[in-house]
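Students often ask why inverse folding is considered easier than folding. One informal answer: many sequences map to the same fold, so there is more than one right answer. In these notes we will look at a single instance of the problem. The structure comes first.
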Protein backbone atom coordinates (compact mmCIF):
# COMPACT_ATOMS: atom_id res chain seq x y z
CA UNK A 1 0.00 0.00 0.00
CA UNK A 2 1.71 3.09 -1.19
CA UNK A 3 1.30 6.62 0.07
CA UNK A 4 1.80 9.17 -2.68
CA UNK A 5 2.65 12.81 -2.66
CA UNK A 6 5.24 12.86 0.11
CA UNK A 7 6.50 16.44 0.26
CA UNK A 8 9.31 17.85 2.39
CA UNK A 9 7.66 20.12 4.93
CA UNK A 10 9.44 23.22 6.14
CA UNK A 11 9.37 23.14 9.92
CA UNK A 12 11.24 25.12 12.52
CA UNK A 13 14.82 24.09 13.19
CA UNK A 14 13.94 23.10 16.76
CA UNK A 15 11.54 20.49 15.45
CA UNK A 16 14.14 19.20 13.03
CA UNK A 17 16.57 18.74 15.90
CA UNK A 18 13.93 16.77 17.81
CA UNK A 19 13.22 14.48 14.87
CA UNK A 20 16.92 13.91 14.19
CA UNK A 21 17.35 12.61 17.72
CA UNK A 22 14.97 9.76 16.88
CA UNK A 23 17.07 8.53 13.94
CA UNK A 24 19.66 6.19 15.46
CA UNK A 25 16.98 4.24 17.34
CA UNK A 26 14.36 3.69 14.63
CA UNK A 27 15.26 0.06 14.09
CA UNK A 28 14.30 -0.72 17.67
CA UNK A 29 10.72 0.21 16.83
CA UNK A 30 10.81 -1.75 13.59
CA UNK A 31 11.50 -4.98 15.41
CA UNK A 32 8.04 -4.77 16.89
CA UNK A 33 7.04 -6.25 13.55
CA UNK A 34 9.08 -9.37 14.22
CA UNK A 35 6.83 -10.16 17.16
CA UNK A 36 3.55 -9.72 15.31
CA UNK A 37 1.29 -12.73 15.39
CA UNK A 38 2.98 -14.24 18.44
CA UNK A 39 1.99 -14.25 22.05
CA UNK A 40 4.25 -15.60 24.76
CA UNK A 41 2.53 -15.87 28.09
CA UNK A 42 5.33 -16.64 30.48
CA UNK A 43 8.87 -17.84 30.97
CA UNK A 44 7.75 -21.48 30.73
CA UNK A 45 4.23 -21.24 29.32
CA UNK A 46 2.95 -22.07 25.85
CA UNK A 47 2.95 -19.58 23.01
CA UNK A 48 1.03 -19.07 19.82
CA UNK A 49 3.63 -18.68 17.13
CA UNK A 50 3.97 -16.43 14.10
CA UNK A 51 5.98 -17.06 10.98
CA UNK A 52 9.37 -16.64 12.59
CA UNK A 53 8.90 -17.55 16.23
CA UNK A 54 9.04 -21.19 17.33
CA UNK A 55 6.69 -22.42 20.04
CA UNK A 56 7.58 -21.45 23.63
CA UNK A 57 9.94 -18.64 22.62
CA UNK A 58 9.98 -15.65 24.95
CA UNK A 59 9.33 -12.08 23.84
CA UNK A 60 11.55 -9.64 25.71
CA UNK A 61 8.80 -7.04 25.91
CA UNK A 62 6.52 -9.47 27.77
CA UNK A 63 8.80 -9.31 30.81
CA UNK A 64 9.15 -6.68 33.47
CA UNK A 65 12.49 -6.42 35.28
CA UNK A 66 11.60 -9.02 37.89
CA UNK A 67 10.37 -11.49 35.28
CA UNK A 68 13.46 -10.82 33.17
CA UNK A 69 15.81 -11.61 36.05
CA UNK A 70 13.90 -14.81 36.75
CA UNK A 71 13.98 -15.80 33.07
CA UNK A 72 17.72 -15.07 32.86
CA UNK A 73 18.25 -17.47 35.76
CA UNK A 74 15.99 -20.17 34.33
CA UNK A 75 17.15 -20.05 30.76
CA UNK A 76 20.75 -19.30 31.68
CA UNK A 77 20.86 -22.65 33.45
CA UNK A 78 19.30 -24.38 30.46
CA UNK A 79 21.78 -22.70 28.14
CA UNK A 80 24.70 -23.67 30.37
CA UNK A 81 23.62 -27.31 30.15
CA UNK A 82 23.54 -27.25 26.36
CA UNK A 83 24.68 -24.25 24.33
CA UNK A 84 23.49 -25.98 21.16
CA UNK A 85 19.88 -25.99 22.32
CA UNK A 86 18.20 -23.48 20.04
CA UNK A 87 15.24 -22.85 22.33
CA UNK A 88 17.49 -22.22 25.31
CA UNK A 89 19.62 -19.79 23.32
CA UNK A 90 16.63 -17.86 21.95
CA UNK A 91 14.98 -17.56 25.35
CA UNK A 92 18.18 -16.75 27.21
CA UNK A 93 18.98 -13.98 24.72
CA UNK A 94 15.43 -12.59 24.94
CA UNK A 95 15.64 -12.59 28.74
CA UNK A 96 19.03 -10.87 28.64
CA UNK A 97 17.66 -8.17 26.36
CA UNK A 98 14.72 -7.63 28.69
CA UNK A 99 17.15 -7.32 31.59
CA UNK A 100 19.21 -4.73 29.70
CA UNK A 101 22.18 -7.03 29.05
CA UNK A 102 22.33 -6.27 25.33
CA UNK A 103 25.93 -7.19 24.59
CA UNK A 104 25.61 -10.54 26.35
CA UNK A 105 22.45 -11.22 24.34
CA UNK A 106 24.41 -10.53 21.16
CA UNK A 107 27.15 -12.92 22.29
CA UNK A 108 24.63 -15.69 22.96
CA UNK A 109 22.98 -15.29 19.57
CA UNK A 110 26.30 -15.00 17.78
CA UNK A 111 27.19 -18.45 19.10
CA UNK A 112 23.71 -19.77 18.28
CA UNK A 113 24.22 -18.77 14.65
CA UNK A 114 27.37 -20.91 14.56
CA UNK A 115 25.31 -23.92 15.62
CA UNK A 116 22.27 -23.03 13.49
CA UNK A 117 23.68 -21.07 10.51
CA UNK A 118 20.61 -21.46 8.28
CA UNK A 119 17.85 -21.26 10.85
CA UNK A 120 15.63 -18.31 10.01
CA UNK A 121 14.36 -17.74 13.54
CA UNK A 122 17.90 -17.76 14.93
CA UNK A 123 19.13 -15.31 12.31
CA UNK A 124 16.16 -13.03 12.94
CA UNK A 125 16.78 -13.08 16.70
CA UNK A 126 20.47 -12.35 16.13
CA UNK A 127 19.64 -9.37 13.92
CA UNK A 128 17.18 -8.16 16.53
CA UNK A 129 19.81 -8.36 19.28
CA UNK A 130 22.37 -6.55 17.13
CA UNK A 131 19.99 -3.70 16.35
CA UNK A 132 19.02 -3.46 20.01
CA UNK A 133 22.72 -2.97 20.75
CA UNK A 134 23.07 -0.30 18.04
CA UNK A 135 25.09 -2.50 15.66
CA UNK A 136 22.97 -1.59 12.66
CA UNK A 137 25.30 -2.49 9.79
CA UNK A 138 25.79 -6.05 10.99
CA UNK A 139 22.11 -6.29 11.90
CA UNK A 140 21.20 -5.34 8.33
CA UNK A 141 23.47 -8.04 6.93
CA UNK A 142 22.00 -10.67 9.25
CA UNK A 143 18.38 -9.74 8.53
CA UNK A 144 19.04 -9.83 4.78
CA UNK A 145 20.64 -13.23 5.22
CA UNK A 146 17.53 -14.47 7.02
CA UNK A 147 15.26 -13.28 4.23
CA UNK A 148 14.28 -15.66 1.44
CA UNK A 149 13.88 -13.95 -1.91
CA UNK A 150 11.47 -16.59 -3.22
CA UNK A 151 9.38 -16.48 -0.06
CA UNK A 152 9.90 -13.09 1.60
CA UNK A 153 8.65 -12.46 5.10
CA UNK A 154 6.93 -9.13 5.74
CA UNK A 155 8.23 -9.00 9.31
CA UNK A 156 11.82 -9.19 8.13
CA UNK A 157 11.12 -6.57 5.46
CA UNK A 158 9.77 -4.23 8.13
CA UNK A 159 12.78 -4.87 10.34
CA UNK A 160 15.13 -4.22 7.44
CA UNK A 161 13.31 -0.96 6.78
CA UNK A 162 13.86 0.15 10.35
CA UNK A 163 17.56 -0.56 10.15
CA UNK A 164 17.88 1.28 6.84
CA UNK A 165 16.13 4.28 8.37
CA UNK A 166 18.59 4.19 11.24
CA UNK A 167 21.41 4.22 8.71
CA UNK A 168 19.92 7.27 6.99
CA UNK A 169 18.60 5.53 3.86
CA UNK A 170 14.96 6.56 4.09
CA UNK A 171 14.20 5.89 0.44
CA UNK A 172 15.28 2.24 0.65
CA UNK A 173 13.60 1.90 4.04
CA UNK A 174 10.24 3.00 2.64
CA UNK A 175 10.60 0.59 -0.25
CA UNK A 176 10.91 -2.24 2.30
CA UNK A 177 7.87 -1.03 4.23
CA UNK A 178 5.80 -0.90 1.04
CA UNK A 179 6.98 -4.36 0.04
CA UNK A 180 5.91 -5.55 3.49
CA UNK A 181 2.51 -3.93 3.01
CA UNK A 182 2.02 -5.82 -0.25
CA UNK A 183 2.43 -9.05 1.72
CA UNK A 184 0.49 -7.79 4.73
CA UNK A 185 -1.96 -5.11 3.50
CA UNK A 186 -2.91 -2.58 6.14
CA UNK A 187 -0.64 -4.11 8.78
CA UNK A 188 -0.59 -1.41 11.49
CA UNK A 189 2.90 -2.18 12.77
CA UNK A 190 4.38 -1.66 9.31
CA UNK A 191 2.35 1.52 8.84
CA UNK A 192 3.65 2.71 12.20
CA UNK A 193 7.24 2.21 11.07
CA UNK A 194 6.56 3.96 7.77
CA UNK A 195 5.08 6.89 9.67
CA UNK A 196 8.16 7.13 11.91
CA UNK A 197 10.28 7.16 8.77
CA UNK A 198 8.35 10.24 7.66
CA UNK A 199 8.96 11.82 11.07
CA UNK A 200 12.71 11.44 10.60
CA UNK A 201 12.56 13.49 7.39
CA UNK A 202 10.16 16.04 8.92
CA UNK A 203 7.25 14.97 6.69
CA UNK A 204 4.80 15.32 9.52
CA UNK A 205 1.58 15.49 7.51
CA UNK A 206 2.45 12.19 5.83
CA UNK A 207 3.36 10.71 9.21
CA UNK A 208 0.04 11.79 10.71
CA UNK A 209 -1.99 10.39 7.82
CA UNK A 210 -0.13 7.07 7.96
CA UNK A 211 -0.56 6.73 11.72
CA UNK A 212 -4.27 7.45 11.42
CA UNK A 213 -4.47 4.74 8.78
CA UNK A 214 -2.71 2.35 11.17
CA UNK A 215 -5.06 3.26 14.02
CA UNK A 216 -8.06 2.39 11.86
CA UNK A 217 -7.07 -1.27 12.27
CA UNK A 218 -8.39 -3.19 15.29
CA UNK A 219 -4.86 -4.63 15.63
CA UNK A 220 -3.32 -1.19 16.25
CA UNK A 221 -1.77 -0.71 19.66
CA UNK A 222 -1.62 2.09 22.18
CA UNK A 223 2.00 2.70 21.23
CA UNK A 224 0.92 3.69 17.74
CA UNK A 225 -1.43 6.14 19.43
CA UNK A 226 1.54 7.51 21.39
CA UNK A 227 3.42 8.07 18.16
CA UNK A 228 0.46 9.97 16.75
CA UNK A 229 0.50 12.13 19.87
CA UNK A 230 4.18 12.82 19.25
CA UNK A 231 3.53 13.82 15.63
CA UNK A 232 0.61 16.04 16.62
CA UNK A 233 2.75 17.70 19.28
CA UNK A 234 5.50 18.36 16.74
CA UNK A 235 2.84 20.05 14.61
CA UNK A 236 1.39 21.85 17.65
CA UNK A 237 -1.82 19.86 17.33
CA UNK A 238 -1.65 18.29 20.77
CA UNK A 239 -5.38 18.64 21.34
CA UNK A 240 -6.25 16.73 18.18
CA UNK A 241 -5.16 13.28 19.34
CA UNK A 242 -8.10 10.88 19.42
CA UNK A 243 -9.00 9.21 22.70
CA UNK A 244 -9.17 5.68 21.35
CA UNK A 245 -5.88 4.69 22.95
CA UNK A 246 -7.50 4.34 26.34
CA UNK A 247 -9.60 1.48 24.98
CA UNK A 248 -6.92 -0.28 22.96
CA UNK A 249 -5.63 -3.60 24.20
CA UNK A 250 -2.00 -4.62 24.28
CA UNK A 251 -0.49 -6.21 21.17
CA UNK A 252 1.27 -9.55 21.07
CA UNK A 253 4.47 -7.79 22.03
CA UNK A 254 2.96 -5.75 24.85
CA UNK A 255 1.70 -6.63 28.29
CA UNK A 256 -0.32 -4.81 30.92
CA UNK A 257 -2.78 -1.95 30.43
CA UNK A 258 -2.52 0.35 27.45
CA UNK A 259 -0.33 3.38 28.15
CA UNK A 260 -1.85 6.79 28.57
CA UNK A 261 -2.35 8.66 25.28
CA UNK A 262 -0.47 11.61 26.78
CA UNK A 263 2.68 12.47 24.87
CA UNK A 264 5.71 10.69 26.38
CA UNK A 265 8.98 12.51 26.82
CA UNK A 266 10.47 12.64 23.34
CA UNK A 267 13.84 11.28 24.36
CA UNK A 268 12.01 8.18 25.69
CA UNK A 269 9.72 7.55 22.73
CA UNK A 270 11.84 4.89 21.12
CA UNK A 271 12.53 3.20 24.43
CA UNK A 272 8.76 2.82 24.69
CA UNK A 273 8.39 1.58 21.11
CA UNK A 274 11.12 -1.01 21.65
CA UNK A 275 8.99 -2.59 24.37
CA UNK A 276 6.58 -3.83 21.74
CA UNK A 277 9.10 -6.26 20.38
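Output (designed amino acids):
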Amino acid sequence: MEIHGAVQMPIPSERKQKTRRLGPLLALGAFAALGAGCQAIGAKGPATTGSLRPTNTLVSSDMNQQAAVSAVRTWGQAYARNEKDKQAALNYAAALRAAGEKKQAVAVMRKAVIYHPKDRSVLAAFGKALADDGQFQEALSVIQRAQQQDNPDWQLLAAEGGILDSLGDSRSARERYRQALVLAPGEPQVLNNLAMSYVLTSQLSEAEATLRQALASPKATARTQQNLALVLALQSKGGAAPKAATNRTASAGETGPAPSPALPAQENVWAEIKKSG
